[in-house]
Amino acid sequence: MGRFRVYFVSDLHGSEVCFRKFLNSAPVYSPDLLIYGGDILGKTLVPIFHDENGGYRWYPTGHGAQHVPKDDLPGVQRKVADSGRYTLVTTPEEWARLQKAPEEMEALFGRLALERLRHWLNLVEERLTPTKIPVVMNVGNDDTNEALELIRNEGPANMLVPEGRVVQAGPYEFFGCGYANMTPWHCPRDLEEKDLEQVLDRTRGQIGNPRRTILDVHAPPYGTSLDMAAELDAEFKPQVVAGHLLMHHVGSTSVRELVESVRPVAGLFGHIHESRAVDTVEGVPVFNPGSAYFSGQLQGLLLDLDGDHVLSHLFVLG
């Protein structure tokens, strides 16, 4: 059959620089296919206030107020975007009002998030469509139905969206699911385990040949090195005992059962940023490239396949 190379990333959460690095990976790694594993949208809106000197001021994380000359505003906005956040140029009074109007704030945040996603779709078309490299792009549990519909409706011709579907790319079938088992934060696409099982079962019937199938599922299988996260107390703070961070498995039992029963060529997962790892489930190789999007560093996985087996894998940083 010959080598087929996949480059896989996940959980960039709005990071402008990380997404551009993802696209720029094509000439560097020469993949046959790019895969984005979900959690596209950012999480935070940062206000930048007009000040009395004709410039601006903002509050970088962990610092006090910082003055921004008028000409430096684009640089600050790009710095914030690279960390996965969105900016709003406003007044202190308007910001205070928005904080007391949660529905209006949510609508504003959603609009800014979709604007960046639309910008990313345009970048894919501009940079990758001429190369004819296909892009499999899925959503994650932090993403909204509006984001999914935008990708489906406005994504370029070389973009495949596997959410709830099995799509064909090259010689392989890609099984997609951007839902996750319930988290403490009750994200937009979190489901109870029994409901997640039903979602997976609906898509399972679309698989043609399991030995030519790759799982692109956001939540990792339970009980592997891919799903280790910090134990949290009632206030969502990580628990530390004798100077050691307590860790436990937080993946999905339904996803694990899917891997065990389908026995695909490989499973690609994300969701748990700190669990960059490779493991096996009943002999099936499973991978999580992890994420450090907030730092601007892109964590990815290069996967070389041939027929029904994995030739090699390499975790890469950029």
Describe this entry's structure for a reader.
- 28% of the residues lie in helices and 29% in strands.
- A six-stranded mixed beta sheet has the order 8-7-2-1-21-22, with helices on one face. A six-stranded mixed beta sheet has the order 9-10-13-18-20-19, covered by helices on one side.
- The protein has helices spanning 16-29, 73-82, 92-99, 102-127, 145-154, 193-204, 253-262; strands at residues 4-9, 33-36, 45-50, 56-58, 66-68, 86-90, 135-137, 159-160, 166-169, 172-177, 180-181, 190-191, 213-217, 228-230, 240-241, 244-245, 247-249, 266-268, 277-281, 284-288, 299-306, 309-317.
- The chain has seven helices and 22 strands.
- The chain folds into two domains: 4-44 and 105-317, Metallo-dependent phosphatases (Purple Acid Phosphatase, chain A, domain 2, 4-Layer Sandwich), CATH 3.60.21; 45-104, no CATH class.
- The two termini are 30 Å apart.
- With 318 residues, it is an alpha/beta fold.
- Helix 1 packs parallel to helix 4 (102-127), helix 4 runs parallel beside helix 5 (145-154) and helix 6 (193-204) packs parallel to helix 7 (253-262).
